[in-house]
Amino acid sequence: MTTIRHDPDADPAHERVRSALAETGSGLAPRPGWEDAVWARIDGGGRRRWGWLAGGAALAAAAIVLVVWAPWRDRAAGRDDRLGDRVAMVEPTIEIRKGAQVMRGTSAAPGDSAVVRHASAGALVWVFRGETLQLACDAGHAAPPGCRRDGAGVVVDVVLDRPGTYHVLTAAGALAAPATLDAALAALTTGGVRFRHDELDVR
């Protein structure tokens, strides 16, 4: 149902009143700012409170932006060269060589080789079979034939001579290789070093 409201201003009975009001004070003008004064009295300073609220919302939004874009997030992810071990790390690559055939993947057979290329400055590569360290290579102590320097990084060539799971840990920094996989993972984690852990299944 539509409700029609009566507009008293349009009522012909009020025409005389409207004419009298139009003639009264026709030469007067209101003081500048009178509307603001009226609104201030009506809302008791409510507009001012809204201004404070709007300002607070803007500050809160700015704080959120600072949290989202805070530079420590990039540094903790390993993208700040000033943090020693937590340096920018180029993602390593792993290839499986089956004789003369080279393929990508994580499955291999006994006698195949794994070639790990890690181009980061200060690169280190640790290879474990099960829990036992098989090969440790870093840019500062590259020992051929299994480990050789390649620019700022290293290339590791390890023979997968026995069945089992081989663990390849790659990172960037100056760390000595622990004798066991658990100790290596603990050292990298507690040291805040960014690293990658790949598993190769040899069957």
Description:
This protein is α+β, with helices and mostly antiparallel strands. It is built from five helices and ten strands, in the order ααααβββββββββαβ. The strands form two sheets. It has a five-stranded antiparallel β-sheet with strand order 2-1-4-8-7, with no helix packed on it. β5 (123-129) and β6 (132-138) form a beta hairpin. The termini are far apart.
| Beta content | 25-35%
Strand elements, count: 10
Largest sheet: 5 strands, antiparallel
How much helix, percentage-wise, in residues?
A: 25-40%
Instruction: Determine the mean pLDDT.
Output: 74
Strand numbers in spatial order across the main sheet? 2-1-4-8-7
Low-confidence sequence ranges: 1-5, 59-87
Indicate the structural class. alpha+beta
Distance between the termini: 81 Å
Rg value: 38 Å
Q: Give the ordered list of helices and strands.
A: HHHHEEEEEEEEEHE
Q: Which shape, going by the Cα principal axes?
A: rod-shaped
User: What's the tally of helices?
Assistant: 5
